[in-house]
User: Which sequence fits this backbone?
């Protein structure tokens, strides 16, 4: 866990800085200079671009972190594994681009009624998707080399700085909205370019197809694994994009703008978790390679416990100040308060159980995960069909939360019965009780007529004192205590 914590802290710090930039971009500048409809367009193009990338990767991303440990040999160019993976994704890009062009009119018909502005920018989904896909491939390759920092820096910081520059140009009327959307799609080639340069610097950029040295038997194993995980990846990404796609279809781009903005706000609370998972996933592959179930079980419990404490703590501090935070947004964003709540319920459980997906998909029983993936898609789709017309964007949030909860519970039970691996400890139950108690205490503390900023500071401080202070004093979660101590030392020495 020491390696995980050390690398996770570095990536968390960088991601947190990137998060600030992201908040300035999407939480402030977008709201100040764009209409809600324009926000919806930008975020819809992005959501479809991510979907394009996942359709195009053909499972190569998952196969890298699953099989790379078996081919890792720098002296032998890692058996050409990177070139092999890029060839697979190239084929995927060609086929998916063909699909996007052939069925363009059919796809545009979906949005013509409620979201006509999107039709002008349909084709720019493709370059955004290709750039994002290239980043995914090189990022997971670097992750398998236990090099995580530059990947996070490229996507979370550099990309957002470039977007900030584009926003400045738009604000100064040096570019129009069309120019912004086009440039916003093209800048997604910046992060993979940075990673390519970094790999060249490390001497790990092996792009010669002639050096591919993978046996036919292993290629078959990789293809079989990639095919199944390709479907799983599509399912997960489709679930994340389905609510945005269906809101744009049934309600319109203004509602899409509100919903996607709140989705971004909830993603902030996942930064520490994503950092932990980023450095934990290659360790899971190593544990499977060595058949180290004890190490895998310990890693699962440690990551889940740390994710629970940090995720729940950040949610509590945010929720007790939710009215204050939303007061800075436009009035049409008020419905987003309950969108935030329901999405966070789903995300919190997803954070806690999240590592079971990596354990599942890297095991010999990965094929069974297709059952859960298609179930997840079906649940989200039909719940959205029913709840969006009744409850609007709040209905979409409820659908996503319910689907994530059922999906994770199903995979949790499967992993437990198959491998006797679970994340539960009795301390975690106490932490949940402490979290609920903290919310009840904070919302009932009288603030009288204090300035809203003072109220915000007091609520945040008292929440942190009660929740995190109690955990540290009573040592309710030793791994979290170690993580927080290292974080404090890191901050002091930085």
Assistant:
């Amino acid at each position: 866990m020491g390696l995980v914590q050390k690398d996770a802290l570095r990536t968390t710090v960088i991601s947190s800085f990137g998060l600030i930039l992201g908040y300035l971009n999407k939480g402030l500048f977008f709201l100040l200079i764009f209409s809600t409809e324009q926000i919806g367009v930008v975020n819809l193009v992005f959501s479809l671009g991510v979907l394009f990338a996942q359709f195009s990767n053909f499972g190569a991303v998952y196969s890298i972190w699953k099989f790379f440990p078996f081919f890792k040999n720098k002296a032998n160019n890692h058996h050409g594994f990177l070139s092999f993976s890029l060839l697979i994704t190239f084929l995927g890009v060609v086929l998916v681009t063909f699909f996007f062009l052939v069925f363009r009119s059919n796809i545009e018909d979906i949005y013509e009624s409620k979201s006509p502005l999107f039709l002008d920018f349909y084709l720019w989904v493709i370059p955004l998707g290709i750039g994002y896909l290239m980043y995914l491939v090189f990022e997971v390759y670097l992750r398998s080399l236990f090099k995580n920092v530059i990947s996070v820096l490229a996507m979370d910081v550099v990309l957002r700085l470039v977007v900030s520059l584009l926003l400045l140009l738009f604000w100064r009327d040096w570019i129009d909205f069309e120019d912004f959307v086009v440039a916003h799609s093209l800048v997604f080639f910046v992060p993979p370019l940075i990673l390519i340069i970094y790999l060249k610097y490390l001497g790990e950029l092996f792009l010669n197809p002639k050096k591919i040295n993978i046996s036919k038997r292993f290629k078959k194993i990789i293809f079989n694994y990639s095919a199944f995980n390709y479907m799983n990846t599509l399912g997960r990404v489709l679930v994340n994009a389905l609510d945005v796609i269906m809101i744009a279809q049934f309600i319109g781009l203004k509602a899409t703008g509100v919903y996607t903005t709140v989705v971004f706000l909830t993603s902030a609370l996942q930064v520490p978790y994503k950092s932990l998972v980023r450095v934990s996933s290659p360790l899971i592959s190593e544990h499977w390679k060595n058949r180290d179930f004890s190490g895998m079980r310990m890693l699962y419990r440690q990551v889940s416990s740390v994710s629970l404490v940090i995720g729940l703590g950040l949610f509590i501090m945010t929720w007790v100040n939710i009215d204050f935070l939303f007061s800075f947004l436009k009035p049409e964003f008020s419905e987003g308060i309950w969108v935030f709540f329901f999405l966070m319920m789903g995300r919190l459980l997803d954070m806690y159980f999240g590592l079971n997906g990596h354990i599942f998909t890297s095991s010999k029983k990965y094929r069974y995960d297709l059952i859960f993936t298609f179930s997840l898609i079906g649940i989200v789709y039909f719940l959205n069909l029913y709840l969006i017309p009744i409850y609007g964007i709040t209905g979409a949030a409820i659908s996503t939360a319910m689907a994530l909860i059922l999906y994770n519970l199903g995979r949790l039970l499967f992993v437990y019965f198959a491998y006797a691996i679970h994340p539960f400890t009795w301390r975690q139950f106490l932490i949940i009780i402490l979290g609920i108690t903290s919310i009840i205490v904070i919302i009932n503390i009288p603030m009288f007529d204090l300035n809203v900023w003072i109220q915000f500071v007091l609520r945040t401080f008292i929440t942190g004192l009660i929740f995190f202070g109690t955990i540290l004093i009573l040592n309710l979660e030793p791994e979290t205590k170690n993580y927080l101590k290292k974080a404090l030392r890191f901050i002091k020495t930085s």
Summary: The chain has one domain: 2-493.
